[in-house]
Amino acid sequence: MKLSLSRVVQGCRLGTLSNLGKKGDRCMEFPGCLLYTRTGSAPHLTHDTLQVISGVPAMTQLTLSSLAEHYEILEEYKEGIGKFIGMPESVFYCSLHDPVNPCPAGFVTNKSVSVWGVGGRLEMTVAKFMAIQQALQPDWLQCLSDGEALCADASSSKRAKKSVDRTLAFLDECLKLQEQSEVLRSCVMIGVIEGGDILEERLRSARETAKRPVGGFLLDGFHGDAMTKETRLRLISSVTAELPENKPRLICGIGQPDEVLECIEAGVDLFESFFPYQATERGCALTFSFDYEPNPEDMVLQQNGQKEGEENGEHIDKIITTKCVPETSFEINLKEKMYRDDFGPLVGGCSCYCCKNHSRAYVHHLLVTNELLAGVLLMMHNFQHYFGFFHAIREALRKDRLGQLKELIYRQAC
Amino acid sequence: MAEPKDPLSMRCPESMTAVAASTTSLGTRAPAALTLRVVAECSRSKARACELRLPHGTVATPVFMPVGTQGTMKGVTAAQLDNLGCRICLGNTYHLGMRPGPELIQKASGLHGFMNWKRNLLTDSGGFQMVSLLALSEVTEEGVRFRSPYDGAEILLSPEKSVEIQNALGSDIMMQLDDVVSSTLTGSRVEEAMHRSIRWLDRCILANQRPDQQNLFAIIQGGLDPALRRKCLEEMTKRNVPGFAIGGLSGGESKEQFWKMVTLSTDQLPREKPRYLMGVGYATDLVVCVALGCDMFDCVFPTRTARFGSALVPTGNLQLKKKQFAKDFRPIDEACTCPTCQRHTRAFLHVLLHSNNTAALHHVTVHNIAYQLQLMNAIRTSIVEHRFPEFVQNFIKTMYGEVGHCPTWAVEALQSVGISLS
């Protein structure tokens, strides 16, 4: 695996990862995101509906929590998770947990970490963890780690120190086992940076992990409400400053467009794409604009959920249907009554399958009648929209337009 | 200008233009929105292979029509459905009439525009759903009176109203409102329903505002009483409708009674018009009823059972959620060409079906639709190639192992049209 940095703009790294995958022939640009999956499949989507989406990332994220319990099946299958799930062409990153489903805290010990699957809790020692990975054969894997420094009510530097100690110990043991396995030697180990909200621990974690032969780094524990935005970004910047330039930096649990940009500025390269999935589950379509150089006519089309001359009506509808208020300001909630007879696309100018073939009114109908197709169409749109956002980030970095993109995104965040 | 003699016409002679434009009188011939061409007929049984020309394209029969109740094929996109080779599917007037309602759909350029389906659509009248879904519905000569389950409002679905809604939906084939009674019912109510259905047929024909674009089918009733069926057939075939459905079956009646009514009906239905057997979708039933002379079928079974993880195969079905498939690395069906079987194993589907990822359901739905369409295609090809009886024998052997395990009703029904299974 090779990382080529083409430029660094205001802290943001723009570049390419090449020689990815078992054959070493895939590549991926960053900043970028990975394709989010649940139990080895993009949510709601089969191969046919997935391949119609533009900009699907070359790398797919699998979660150990959804697959670990099936490892005996995979052992017998022998050909690895990519082929098993019907995605033989993709490159895979296996994370420990699912960013959408938080798991109960309090189950990490010095010897083991637990994940929760359909069948309940699965406890993994280092040996078990590596045996499972041997059956899955992902291209990149998140090393076994203790991510619970901030799970208790009070943050404690003792707990933060423990998370770093344990994670480093797990890393060293996993690396040893990796050495002994021919299958696993071709996998890239991603070292996990822990340390809660304690700066010294974060720095220690970064420096120590960087000493090990890992292929990349995952910045863990920065999601949720455990720390303020300022603390988070300060810590992330401090961590990435300690990491080698030539290895990718991933972060988990961060998906909102404004937060993504902030993290890129702080030195992060790769993100997950669970955010479009969450919007889908809310019955929402991502509509935020990332077109920082729009035509004046296009501006009207892209305004969030507004039909011309209907601002007042929209306001009233929002009051009546407060249960349908969208989670973020980056999306519209298609369940709202105002979309019942809106025959325009989800987003004007969007070229996704849903926007080219269907209307807001149709998706509204599907949501109101609880039809499965609602999830399919919204997922197709939301993924394409989100992948388009990352493409825009890379273009903005290439053309020195980051400031404009930032301004546009932050304007829509509220 | 000389006018062709129309023995069924009760009008005074008019000019040809007026005949073409006239839409509503009994027996008037409007420009054809449907033509049926019989391509091949089985020399032994009553099976036929036809070409059905409809406003949104040609449909090869015998055909199975998947049911997309609320303007969607349950998680399968219009593009996927088209790619599977589906050329006609169903929408439900009752459901769509309630939500989102005919006015909205009309604004969306009909159901075709609303769901963006470019092929053919068939809508039922709404009658069956109302009687089966609603606890309190009352049938009078006017129509079916019921309470909306969504807002409690009292609604009357009359023949005129049903056709009005279906006109707004713009389906290529629409069904008359019939007085539906349970097939296990006996007595005077069955006779009353049969006669009322004839009167309602006439009202539906009159109410159709778009006969040049939408084909109104009659529905033969009469329950399980041969005399009532024959009477209904005699009357309804006097009307100039483009096609006929065989209704009032596929309820709780025995298969023995079922097939006898089917074959009685096809005996009396015109050769040059399509015969649509409503609510039939199990593989064996399809094969037998094709032998008895039916052309078109619909059923929720394949798509509904898919959502429970049940995959249809030539030997029956696979309950993919069961443990026995956990390490089965074969596709659902080795011979199936559907996208699911091309890419996925039973083992993967087993895992996915135990997750909450809806993709699992879509994989099986795609396969089950493909299974049904491939089955009908195989039936049709065997008719065209004059080997339908052999096809039936092979089908039964594959499905039931030995002939002895094949249900008696199917053996007898096939026997009645010259196909023996020994």
Automatic annotation (TrEMBL), chain A:
Keywords: Cytoplasm, Membrane, Metal-binding, Mitochondrion, Mitochondrion outer membrane, tRNA processing, Zinc. GO terms for cellular component: cytoplasmic side of mitochondrial outer membrane; tRNA-guanine transglycosylase complex. Its cofactor is Zn(2+). Binds 1 zinc ion per subunit. It is a peripheral membrane protein. GO terms for biological process: tRNA wobble guanine modification. GO terms for molecular function: metal ion binding; protein heterodimerization activity; protein homodimerization activity; tRNA binding; tRNA-guanosine(34) queuine transglycosylase activity. InterPro entries: QTRTD1, Queuine_tRNA-ribosyltrfase, TGT-like_sf, tRNA_ribo_trans-like. It is found in: Cytoplasm; Mitochondrion outer membrane. Its main location: cytoplasm. Pfam families: TGT. Zn(2+) binds at residues 350, 352, 355, 381. Residues 13-412 form the tRNA-guanine(15) transglycosylase-like domain. Belongs to the queuine tRNA-ribosyltransferase family. QTRT2 subfamily. Heterodimer of a catalytic subunit QTRT1 and an accessory subunit QTRT2. Non-catalytic subunit of the queuine tRNA-ribosyltransferase (TGT) that catalyzes the base-exchange of a guanine (G) residue with queuine (Q) at position 34 (anticodon wobble position) in tRNAs with GU(N) anticodons (tRNA-Asp, -Asn, -His and -Tyr), resulting in the hypermodified nucleoside queuosine (7-(((4,5-cis-dihydroxy-2-cyclopenten-1-yl)amino)methyl)-7-deazaguanosine). This is Queuine tRNA-ribosyltransferase accessory subunit 2. The gene is QTRT2.
